[in-house]
Design a protein that fits this description.
- By secondary structure, the protein is α/β, with parallel strands linked by helices.
- 17% of the residues lie in helices and 28% in strands.
- It is built from eleven helices and 36 strands.
- A hairpin with a 5-residue loop joins β16 and β17.
Length: 684
């Protein structure tokens, strides 16, 4: 994003200083006995990675390039190279996704008032003497109105990293000043009102595509997606003028663009992209949190949703992640967590573990609840001067995994322009080093752990966060894998206050289980070798099995209504369960977007959505999309059921807990009245 004077504090505090590139892993040899760190371990947890519920191939880890790239692209070579290694090197964060910001740019006569690195140069070239009052001069078809040499500092980074990047995205924080209502790229004077002028929508589309084309041609890269927005339906982006009429407030580019105007932009952008030299698809809409994302997306008519190739959401707010997960499944579109950062602290520090733990838990939660195909930092490099005490806050802050001054000059050295890393840098590498592009995220039943299977399917990784101060044991239960070799091992790689990515001795798996102790306030990557496949009884939902579906909010079972077609909730009837048992048949898909048909066993009627209502209908003839359900779970034993035709979920009306309360359908909203626990009641 381009983030406001970020006042939100997300969780805690911060990191470990590393003024060098990453820490090499120590090597070990087999065999190895189970070894525990010093000190008694607290009560442990059991983690069950479940490959029966797997995502599509993970695309990787990434970053936006602004503002750090704009600020540092002309730094001395030694400083830039060290930053490069920390971000993209094998021992650094090892990122493979980059989001290039297409700057808007204020008028030539406006003195820069944006934060360090925030004034990203636009791709336009204004005639001599142009002022902020001149807004009708630009013509996308006139080469003289384009500056092909714009933004050299951010583009230095494009050239430096292009061999490391597998996915490029361009995005916009603000249109150029001459397309805005206020005449400034920092937002409207009323931050809650649309900033893009309606008569500039077509020009904005041409500008974004023209800049993307020129970026691709100049640097020999291929941009996969273009997102025209950044946190558009918010009141973050506002410009304030001082007594002299000059802007004094609003320190970064941003533009409120409400849902209706978003639709106009997307309708204008699609045909321009279609006729362009770029093969980029549209991504949208990089909203600040899942709840506002859902508000925007649900306002789009189907023909606008069809224009979007991938859905992008930020997680500065964490509620309703599963809403966006289910919206993406309903739309059958890939989903990215395309930006987040945070402080997790109470003052700038490079040794406090709390920021590292806060970031790690955020990553676990995002991966578990959103099921994204990629996870992207806002900017891992922050302005040290802005984060030190007296910067954005009295105590300073821990934004970024890496901090250096954005005020360095070409004469500085690594000594005069030092680079610091905090514990967020260290714990992030527990994810980025061991869950690799091509791996597949899988379900776990522990909210402090995330897991993935390797691209080849012959290994797995579990990343576990222990935020407590006490050590505890972690038992990995590998019984849901189809094959566990007699020589299977688990190797812990531990980041704590005692060390970074410390590779410990492997532990042999016995009885499909391995128990290992982890230190307090640590993040551990468990590298599992010798597992593959899926056990026959691994899946919670299995074809041919029969289940009770019990509402999480009501505690009552989904039941066929007395009229034989409607659905209600009722207390389970242990003597006569007819109407309350549902046979499952998987009919399509192999990943976490599998489709099922649910048939009530006594009546032979299947669950479907017809004419906007949840119905039980004879399970006869073609099982069309309206009779197909995509099942989603966070691993807690509860599921949502996404109708493949409408994207709606079975929903207990009014969140009732009364026997006989009706069950209809509603858009995903992460409510407990839309979640169902499954109990296998298959006879025999």
């Amino acid at each position: 994003m381009a983030h406001r004077t970020r006042k939100r504090r997300l969780l805690g505090a911060i990191g470990v200083t590393a003024v060098a590139t990453g820490t090499l892993l120590a090597t070990t040899t087999l065999p190895a006995a189970h070894a525990e760190p010093a000190g008694a371990a607290a009560a442990g947890v059991t983690v069950r990675p479940d490959p029966s519920y797997a995502g599509d191939e993970f695309e990787g880890w990434g970053t936006s390039l602004v503002w750090f790239a704009n600020a540092t692209g002309d730094y001395p070579p030694a400083v830039r190279e060290k930053l490069y290694r920390l971000l993209f090197g094998d021992d650094g964060l090892d990122l493979n996704i980059a989001r290039y910001n297409i700057g808007g740019g204020n008028a030539p006569d406006v003195k820069d008032y944006l934060r360090a690195g925030g004034a990203v140069e636009g791709w336009w070239k204004a005639p001599a003497g142009t002022t902020r009052e001149d807004v009708d001069w630009w013509d996308s078809d006139d080469p003289a109105d384009w500056n092909k040499n714009a933004d050299k500092t951010q583009r230095w980074w494009v050239d430096r990293i292009k061999q490391d990047i597998t996915h490029w995205e361009t995005f916009s924080n603000s249109p150029p000043w001459f397309m805005t209502e206020s005449g400034y790229v920092s937002g409207n004077f009323d931050a809650g009102k649309d900033q893009l002028k309606t008569d500039s929508v077509d020009d904005f589309a041409e500008y974004l595509v023209g800049a993307t084309e020129r970026l691709e041609k100049a640097h020999g890269i291929k941009v996969d997606t273009l997102d025209p927005f950044n946190e558009p339906n918010t009141d973050y982006w506002g410009t304030q003028l001082g007594p002299d009429g000059e802007p004094v407030g609003g320190r970064q580019e941003g533009a409120h663009i409400g849902p209706e105007l978003q639709q106009k932009v997307l309708r204008a952008l699609a045909p321009v992209l279609d006729k362009s030299r770029s093969k980029a698809e549209i991504s949208a809409m990089d909203e600040t949190n899942p709840g506002i994302f859902a508000t925007n997306w649900n306002s789009y008519p189907q023909e606008v949703r069809d224009l979007v190739g991938r859905m992008n959401v930020h997680t500065y707010g964490t509620g309703q992640r599963t809403t966006v997960r289910d919206l993406a499944k309903a739309a059958d579109k890939p989903l990215w967590m395309s930006e987040v950062e945070g402080d997790w602290g109470d003052g700038q520090s490079f040794t406090d573990m709390r920021p590292g733990l806060g970031l790690a838990q955020r990553m676990v939660d995002d991966l578990r609840e959103l099921e994204p195909k990629a996870w992207v930092f806002w900017q891992p490099v922050e302005d040290y001067d802005n984060m030190k005490p007296g910067g954005e806050s009295a105590k300073g802050g821990n934004w970024g995994e890496i901090q250096l001054p954005f005020s360095c000059t070409s004469k500085d050295t690594l000594k005069s322009c030092p680079i610091h890393t905090n514990t967020k840098f260290d714990t992030a590498r527990n994810f980025t080093h061991f869950i690799k592009p091509g791996d597949r995220l899988i379900k776990t039943d522990d909210t402090s752990s995330t897991a993935a299977i390797s691209r080849k399917g012959d290994a797995a990784t579990v990343v576990h966060v222990n935020s407590a101060t006490e050590a505890h044991e972690v038992t990995l239960d590998l019984s849901k894998f189809g094959r566990v070799s007699s020589r299977a091992t688990v190797t812990p790689v531990v980041t704590s206050s005692d060390g970074k990515l410390e590779k410990q001795k492997p532990v042999r798996v016995s009885g499909k289980r391995a128990t290992l102790a982890v230190p307090g306030q640590s993040v551990t990557s468990f590298l599992v070798k010798g597992v593959s496949g899926v056990a026959k009884d691994a899946a919670e939902l299995r074809t041919g099995h029969t289940y009770r579906l019990t509402g999480v909010q009501s505690g009552k079972d989904l039941t066929l209504a007395g009229n034989g077609t409607g659905l209600v909730i009722r207390t389970p009837d242990t003597t006569d369960p007819s109407g309350q048992q549902w046979r499952v048949a998987q009919i399509r898909g192999e990943d976490n977007r599998k489709r099922y048909v649910l048939t009530e066993t006594a009546s032979g009627k299947r669950l479907a959505v017809r004419d906007g209502a949840l119905v039980a209908e004879p399970d006869e003839g073609r099982r069309d999309d309206a009779a197909q359900w995509i099942a989603s779970s966070t691993g807690d034993g509860s599921w949502t059921l996404v109708n493949a035709a409408t994207g709606q979920l079975p929903d207990v009306g009014g969140q009732s807990t009364n026997d006989g309360a009706s069950v209809g359908v509603w858009q995903p909203n992460s409510g407990s009245n839309q979640r169902w626990k499954v109990t296998d009641v298959t006879s025999g």
